[in-house]
Amino acid sequence: MARTILASPNKEVIMGFDQPFCIIGERLNPTNRKSFMAELRAGDFSRVERDCIAQVEAGAHMLDVNAGVPLADEPKLLAQCIELVQSLCDLPICIDSSIIDALEAGLAVYKGRPLVNSVTGEDESLERVLPLVKKYDAAVVAISNDETGISVDPEVRFAVAKKIVERAQDHGIKPEDVVVDPLVMPIGAMGTAGRQAFEIVYKLRKELGVNTTCGASNVSFGLPNRHALNAHFLAMASACGMTSAIMNPLHEEEMAGIKAADVLNGNDPDCMRWIMKYREPVEGGEDGGAGGRRGGRRRRSAA
Amino acid sequence: MARTILASPNKEVIMGFDQPFCIIGERLNPTNRKSFMAELRAGDFSRVERDCIAQVEAGAHMLDVNAGVPLADEPKLLAQCIELVQSLCDLPICIDSSIIDALEAGLAVYKGRPLVNSVTGEDESLERVLPLVKKYDAAVVAISNDETGISVDPEVRFAVAKKIVERAQDHGIKPEDVVVDPLVMPIGAMGTAGRQAFEIVYKLRKELGVNTTCGASNVSFGLPNRHALNAHFLAMASACGMTSAIMNPLHEEEMAGIKAADVLNGNDPDCMRWIMKYREPVEGGEDGGAGGRRGGRRRRSAA
Q: Residues of B with CB below 8 A from A260's CB?
């Protein structure tokens, strides 16, 4: 069974079928956020600081960091963001860019063992990203598309993922250090998107034994009550073998879905994390006096 | 792919992998409900009427009917309850008793094609219940325990289920008319209970192609925030192939989990049921005037 180990200087996170679902905070990413882009372009990193701290407090296990700002020096900006985040918290980082020079700049400054986001099945990507992953002893997210685009056939997406895992091995990267993103489509546009994702993830687990991740919110694009759909998608995918997601840890509903999934997948020993999070207060318990009731705190929404 | 067809005189319900998850209302059951038992013993059926209507309105697809009242004439009582429920609504019924004479009394009065709850892998149960199921052309819930009890080994539980399906075939009952209950244990007592259930259900689907059901709330016994656990358990189990559950349709959280699972399993065409349930009101829409806002109704909790 694959165990992907990610680390900062002081903290190790293990991704695996027998581990709690790995929550990779998505908020340090200016894509589609105009004011965040403008701030970064102007050298204002205050939102990075705030979003970093907020995600740590919300229970993220790792943080994705992306600095994709058009017309900016992305390699320099990404390196600055990574150094800032590493000065603020000890969560391992997922270094996220579509620009390979930016990935390298991020890898050069990162302290620990990061996750590189991402390599695709395209030859140029494979030939440029995998040597970097090997050079810096990192793990890598493998996105299952190639030169022909994203196939709607789950067998093709599985085959692309398999090709990436094999190419990684040619570069000396173990399968356990390849985390496959099977590409989850919006279910509002493609009714089979969920079932396809579950089947690919199941197959990736059974046949390749690799860890998997996804952008969790994409599945509910365009639909109402997205948080409930995302939460149940994450739980369902985890039952089929998905072991992590790049997601917003500030959303309570998705986080509850993942905590429930950890319990139900047997990855919350003695259900202790669930019980600590959701237990009812004891009336007149240790914090209460003889009168009792004032001491009873509602703990359901406590951290 | 198994399609289990249940019917009342006016309504057909199909259980299957390509169908909405089948919600079997559990409320018409006096087990562990002292006042309900006392009422039934005294010939007061008012709670049956109320719970029947409430479950229909909440969206149940079928209703489980049990009349297990100690010291009462259970066959007669069960037949009375079934006739009452059939006079009140047109949902197909799951005839529920551990007393075989009561099952027969219920089958004798039922109009349509019911689900018989249940047969076990015990020889006496097989030899007495299966002929009844065949005689009345019903479908049957198969509980995967036998003379040795409930095995904690999922392979043994699968083997018991397989034996029941084979014995049913010997009696002329098709596998599609056997709905297996893999017996879900409380996760608070056995941390592997969820994963075991998912694996058995997956195997039952892949290898036997049968529909499955469970008592949904058992998994969360003894834990806080049970509704969230139950909801995610149902969604996760459905992703692995579970197609129905005996559950309380009055619990909004579990119902949302099932509706989300239907979307994500591709069994809510064009997500229309989800959209109708959860769409946001249009401000100043068709019900509003020029001023608009007063006409905007919140529809999130509408039926």
A: 228-229, 231-233
